[in-house]
Amino acid sequence: MSFFDFFKREAGLLQTSKRVEQQVDEFLSIVVEAGQVFREAFHVYVTAGPSTTFEAQFETINDLEHKGDDLRREIETELYAKTLIPDLRSDVLQLVENIDKVTNLYKSNLFRLSIQRPEIPKTLHSEYERLAEAAVECARCTDRNDTILLQGPHGRTRRCEASRRSSRRGPMKLALHC
After folding, report:
1. Helices (H), 49-124
2. For 70-99, what is the mean pLDDT?
């Protein structure tokens, strides 16, 4: 039973349409796609510096961020038009708004690289790429957990967990398991 179905069936409190569910799915897909573009753009920047490929990927992130903002506003409008209990709609809206911040962070970080154009020493390339990968993986896990929260597990009970290990001699290692 999905999050929305629970409230429809059990309490009749959250009256939404399939449209809202589809919009939330599409919104989460945009966030995941933005993460993939961010990962690729960051890799391009680290290996080749500010290039036309990097700038094109920055524009793609910019477009995805605008598309996500538009969709977030559509979800908000739909929820306010179709939901009876304000607390329930505000919970869903707060979740969507907080997820939207992930795409905004991708965009702002690429913007900083585009404007500041820092030089990253070759000895640190792999570490920076691992850091970017960890950030994208965290966002992907958040997306997966939000999907389960909003739609119900449908047989998917996996959770994302982060573990870290550090040693006195080496850098901290971050492992994400989803």
Report:
1. 52-82, 86-116
2. 81
Cβ burial of 114 (10 Å; 0-12, 13-18, 19+) is middle
Answer whether residue 38 shows pLDDT above 50.
yes
pLDDT reading at 34 higher than 80: yes
- Give the global pTM: 0.71
One-character DSSP codes across 8-24: IIIIS-----HHHHHHH
**Residue 164: exposed, middle, or buried by beta-carbon count in 10 A (0-12, 13-18, 19+)?**
exposed
Helix (H) or strand (E) segment spanning residue 25: helix 18-48
> How distant, in Å, are the alpha carbons of 23, 102, 129, 141, 149 from that of 135?
24, 10, 10, 10, 21
| DSSP letter, residue 83 | -
Q: Is the C-alpha dihedral spanning 9, 11, 15, 16 positive or negative?
A: negative
Return d(Cα 178, Cα 171) in angstroms, integer: 23
